[in-house]
Amino acid sequence: MKNCISCKKSTVNDGGAIAIACPQCSTELIRCGQCRKTAVSYKCKCNLEGP
Ligand SMILES: [Zn+2]
Ligand SMILES: [Zn+2]
User: Fold this and answer.
1) Ligand 1 centroid to residue 47 C-alpha, Å
2) Residue-by-residue DSSP string for 1-51
3) Can you say how many angstroms the Cα of residue 19 is from the centroid of all Cα atoms in its chain?
4) Ligand 1 centroid, distance to 29 Cα (angstroms)
5) Residue 26's CB: how many other CB atoms inside 10 A?
6) How much is the pTM?
7) Digit-coded pLDDT (tens) for 8-51
8) How far apart are CA 49 and CA 12, in angstroms?
9) What's the gap between Cα 14 and its chain centre?
10) How many angstroms separate the alpha carbon of residue 41 from the centre of ligand 2?
């Protein structure tokens, strides 16, 4: 199951959710449609933070 990196919400029923690769460590980061829309920042386990 995939959960949003920002709000930890499940993205199973979220059509707007996307997966991006962390530019630093290539970990898959999941962002839900809501967090994309509101530009919530995320923080990767490698401590990289992004918009
Ligand atoms: Zn989210
Ligand atoms: Zn990372």
Assistant:
1) 18
2) --B-TTT--B-TT-TT-EEEE-TTT--EEEE-HHHHHTT--EE-TTS-EE-
3) 7
4) 11
5) 10
6) 0.82
7) 999 999 999 999 999 999 999 999 999 999 999 999 999 999 88
8) 24
9) 12
10) 13
Residue in 17, 15, 13, 23 with CA at minimum distance from that of residue 5? 17
| Amino acid 50: pLDDT | 83
What pLDDT was estimated at residue 13? 92
Exposed/middle/buried for residue 37 (C-beta within 10 Å: 0-12, 13-18, 19+): exposed
Q: pLDDT at position 23, please?
A: 92
**Among 7, 12, 2, 1, residue whose Cα is nearest residue 36:** 7
Token pair, residue 24, equals 């630093």
d(CA 23, CA 37): 21
